[in-house]
Design brief:
Elements lengths: L3 E10 L2 E7 L5 E4 L6 H9 L12 H4 L8 E8 L5 E7 L6 E4 L2 E2 L3 H6 L2 E4 L11 H15 L3 H21 L4 H31 L10 E6 L6 H10 L1 H7 L10 E6 L4 E2 L5 H23 L4 E4 L8 H14 L3 E5 L13 E8 L2 E7 L2
Parallel strand pairs: 3-13, 3-14, 8-12, 12-13
Antiparallel strand pairs: 1-2, 1-4, 4-5, 5-6, 6-7, 9-10, 10-11, 14-15
């Protein structure tokens, strides 16, 4: 049995006042009307990984209203060496806390237990919007391979924020800049290397003959990849950066490019359905690469994934998930969207009654 969420208990988490569920490792189908609480449940599972979850919400946004008492998630993870207990919570106005097997732990420790990947409807416009969203998408992929990537990112951004402050204040002391630029160069070069490694892993585990269009992904970054060269570029760009009031060189300005390989077409020029299928292709390549690297498939969170997919591609996606042996949480407005899964999945109805979400297991 693969690594999976075996049980989940939510307390005061958005629309779930108190929700308890048991899972057996098969894909989990969550069907229900819009607003019933399906995505809230996926968000809770996503917080069993490092970071701010699939909605990137602030902690106080998650707590159930009007009580605003904070929130808590308690989950048992089935692991090859035995079950592990994860608890994560936030009190009003406080940062998120994590406890693993009843001992406080950093969020990064969650990434060591199980990899987690997700797709949400907000990602459907990934190729049409600003580079920031694509960088975040790429860095989430990188994080699945290298949990320490988050620390490198924070180190780079901290040094850059301080450098930007000096630029805005018109400080000219080269010593201050040199120290910060050295920190940015070391962390930034590692960010670029991590991103390039992740894209190479995706390319190696693509499926050019599969039902989803394979994407040729490129890292578009004008900043030097060598730390010494990056430090030099930052030093030489101080005057220009001071005029702009911010750092104009570095991996924080990188972009992710994508071309539908078979057609030689930029992702932004593809139809909505083709873009959705391309995202699924990337996710499946990521999952295959992680399965090989970690010896177990990642947990997949697929919110409204059936949207824009015809019946043939829906069936192909479900076959791919089952072929990986991955626990996947899938949401949709109708159970008929998941009929091809049948008994290969657990099926739940999610309903909303007087502002409270309720979960009930059903038979397909």
């Amino acid at each position: 049995m693969p690594v999976h969420v075996a049980s989940l208990l939510l307390s005061h988490f958005r629309s779930h006042l108190r929700m308890r569920a048991q899972f057996d490792g098969r894909p989990v189908v969550l069907s229900g009307r819009n607003g019933a609480g399906k995505t809230n449940l996926l968000e809770a599972v996503s917080l069993l990984s490092p970071g701010r979850g699939l909605r990137r919400a602030a902690q106080d946004e998650i707590a159930r209203r009007p009580q605003a008492l904070g929130w808590k998630i308690r989950a048992e993870m089935a692991m090859p060496d035995g079950p592990r207990l994860i608890e994560t919570w936030a009190e009003p106005g406080q940062s998120r806390m994590v406890r693993i097997d009843e001992k406080l732990a950093p969020q990064t420790a969650l990434g060591e237990l199980a990899a987690m990947l997700w797709l949400t409807p907000a990602m459907d416009r990934l190729w049409l919007e600003a580079p920031e969203g694509r960088r975040r998408f790429l860095d989430r992929i990188v994080l699945s391979f290298r949990p320490d990537h988050a620390g490198r990112t924070l180190a780079y951004e901290k040094a850059m924020r301080e450098r930007n402050r000096l630029l805005r204040e018109g400080v000219t002391d080269s010593g201050w800049y040199a120290a910060l630029e050295a920190q940015m160069a070391q962390a930034g070069a590692q960010l670029t290397a991590n991103r390039a490694h992740a894209l190479a892993a995706l390319a190696e585990h693509g499926d050019p003959d599969g039902p989803f269009p394979e994407a040729e992904l490129t890292l578009n970054c004008e900043a030097p990849a060598d730390p010494d060269d990056l430090a030099t570029a930052l030093a030489e760009g101080r005057r220009r950066d001071m005029a702009a009031g911010r750092s104009l060189t570095g991996p924080h300005r990188a972009d992710l490019g994508a071309i539908w390989t078979a057609k030689g077409m930029q992702a932004a020029q593809c139809s909505t359905g083709e873009q959705k299928a391309m995202l699924i292709s990337i996710l499946l390549a990521n999952a295959r690469a992680l399965s090989r690297m970690r010896g177990a498939p990642p947990i997949l969170l697929l919110d409204e994934v059936a949207a824009h997919l015809d019946a043939a591609r829906r069936a192909a996606l479900y076959d791919a998930i089952c072929g990986l042996g991955a626990q996947a949480f899938l949401t949709g407005t109708g159970a008929e969207l998941f009929s091809e899964l049948g008994a290969r999945a657990q099926h739940f109805d999610v309903t909303e009654v007087e502002g409270l979400s309720q979960l009930k297991e059903t038979t397909p």
